[in-house]
Design a protein that fits this description.
The chain has 14 helices and eleven strands. By secondary structure, the protein is α/β, with parallel strands linked by helices.
Length: about 400
């Protein structure tokens, strides 16, 4: 999932606030799901027509999606990050997938692994450092498509933003880079253990770029999903992409529910750029654009700024009509991304002067839930679940 921030206002002084701070220091396997604020799976609060259809429409609403796992507490896209999210009670856990040189799908937010692994500390890979243009952006570093899976497995994951989350660096080197197949196996095992399917939210990253390298993502992803029985209409996973053509391609391969991700209003999906399609995200969130996406997707994943635009001072403004318009097109909304730290919150929810201290995340969650969204990505799913509990019971 792409990086983006969020929020608006309510005092965050309930006992749940203390509970979430305690949860942040608990490890995977602890009884975080026993916190009084964690949402129960049978609770429902959303727009009409969500229940009784099986599959994604039976998920609790609003649905809490663990963004790259518990990336507020563990290095992102590691089995440790996913496990902690599951233990905390997240309804769905996100994976971003990119390919290796030999065509395996691995879970990384980006194919540039400079910031998320210890690759720079491996002298045997020093010559792999290079500069590439990915979706029109020049990047210098190390890239998954230049490594075989065996080579990538010699690396260890580390915290991507240590300046903001120094506490996460405690876990640097603890986990490797997981393959998507390893995540499917983990989900199967955890599902059997818990007697409940583990829901995933799988994103194809830079699909046009990789297809140009002969490393198309959709076909191997669909093949893997079929192998693990996750390809059906009611299978416990979403497929997502910032490129509508990737979702269209996946729609022809599998029946699993699909979500089109949407960045800033003035941006264009990269496949549109490559194809000469002049439409922007602003065009896609108009009723005609939403109707077009509803022809091959079941939902959208907009940046939160499309749901509630920010004012010039960085505080939340007036909600847009996107939720109403998307629901009219029978699309669900899973916007991204809520984070607890001041630096990522709207200015009217920040507390104190430390950019890395927690602000009034509960107030921000409340503002977004009140718009009628169907779910929300969060780096801190324990906070999100407590906020959801407040909202559902409010």
């Amino acid at each position: 999932m792409a990086t983006q921030e969020s929020g608006q206002q309510q005092p965050g002084t309930s006992p749940g606030r203390r509970a979430v701070l305690g949860a942040a220091v608990l490890g995977a396997g602890t009884a975080v799901a026993g916190l009084p604020g964690v949402a129960r799976a049978d609770e429902r609060h959303g727009h009409g027509g969500q229940g009784g259809h099986g599959g994604y429409r039976d998920l609790p609403v609003p649905t809490i999606v663990a963004h790259r796992g518990t990336s507020g507490y563990r290095p992102e896209h590691t089995l440790g990050s996913y496990q902690l999210a599951l233990d905390m009670g997240a309804h769905v856990i996100e994976q971003d997938v990119v390919p290796t040189k030999d065509g395996h799908l691995v879970c990384r937010h980006e194919n540039d692994i400079t910031a998320t692994t210890d690759v720079s500390a491996h002298p045997e890979f020093a010559s792999r450092k290079t500069t590439k243009s990915v979706d029109g952006v020049s990047l210098t570093g190390w890239f998954t498509e230049d490594f075989t899976l065996a080579e990538l497995k010699t690396l260890r994951a580390k915290e991507r933003i240590p300046g903001n989350r120094q506490h996460n660096t405690l876990y640097d080197g603890r986990w490797d880079v997981p393959t998507l197949e390893e995540v499917f196996r983990w989900a199967e095992k955890q599902g059997r253990k818990r007697g409940k399917q583990v829901w995933l939210h799988i994103e194809t990253k830079h699909p046009t770029y990789f297809r140009g390298l002969g490393l198309g993502l959709e076909e191997p992803l669909a093949k893997l999903m079929r192998r693990y029985g996750r390809h059906k209409k009611n299978s416990p996973n979403f497929l997502q992409s910032f490129e509508p053509s990737s979702i269209q391609r996946l729609a022809k391969l599998v029946a699993a529910p699909r979500v089109v991700l949407l960045s800033t209003a003035n941006s264009r999906p990269w496949d549109f750029v490559e194809a000469g399609d002049p439409r922007t995200v602003a065009d896609l969130i108009k009723p005609e654009g939403l109707k077009w996406m509803a022809g091959f997707a079941q939902g959208i994943g907009p940046t939160l700024d499309l749901v509630i635009p920010k004012k010039a001072d960085g505080s939340l403004g007036t909600p847009s009509t996107l939720v109403k318009d998307a629901h009219a097109a029978r699309l669900i909304l899973h916007p991204y991304t809520m984070r607890n730290e001041n630096t990522f919150l709207p200015t009217n929810f920040r507390k104190g002067t430390d950019p890395n201290a927690y602000g009034d995340a509960f107030g921000a969650f409340k503002a977004y839930f009140e718009t009628g969204i169907d779910g929300l990505f969060s780096d801190n799913c324990d906070t999100a679940l407590l906020a959801r509990e407040d909202f559902v019971n409010g």
